[in-house]
Amino acid sequence: MSHLRLVFFFLTCTTAVLSSQPLCAQESWGSQWTAGIDLVSSYIWRGARQGRGPHLQPSVEYSAGPFTAGIWGTFDLHGYKEVDLYAAVDLPCGFFVSLQDYYLAELPWADFSTESGSHVLEAGLGYESENVSLMANYIFNEAGGIGSSGGDLYFESRFSFDYFTVIMGAGNGWHTEDGRFKACIIGLEVSRDITVSDTFAIPVTAQMIYNPDQGILFMVAGLSLATGSGN
User: Fold this and answer.
1) Of 5, 137, 147, 168, which residue is the least packed, with the fewest Cβ within 10 Å?
2) Within a domain: residue 154?
3) What pTM does this model have?
4) What secondary structure letter does DSSP report for 88?
């Protein structure tokens, strides 16, 4: 299946699923702090491997009403360090807008230049329901240190079924080998909880990810620990 046919296929699926979603209902709001850490066998971001070997991925997040903000990091044993800040606002009917700062932590934090900058700023518009997750992203800035030319687009769809989730994504710039818009991820994800006691379980996830642009297949496994407090 060609890249254009694949993109057309998941856009068609997206349209069909959205048209079948029920009308939005009134949401209830609260506030909560959440802290967690993931351990993954490899860090695959939008179909491309970052760093080498296993990664530890700590996170802290605060949500209040429709607003969410947090910090997330990923670190391997070979020197790869990434720390990302993000914020999102929920909109009616399952939609949301987001803003994310990707920071390559081996570079100076205060470098926002186009020549050697260590930060990339990305805006997103998404939709999420019980079985469907859609995301459209746009990268604003050029940052030589982190390898961004700016103006990049990325679109991703996730469709959840009883026992697995299908992931499809396409983009340009950062996301493909030659910078042209192509499909860069086709994935299958399975998640299960390992029950430790009546009140404690460990979520475990396995993914099979194929990057049609690079022609590479990845297998990834991970587990998560999290705790939170709120009202």
Assistant:
1) 5
2) yes
3) 0.87
4) E
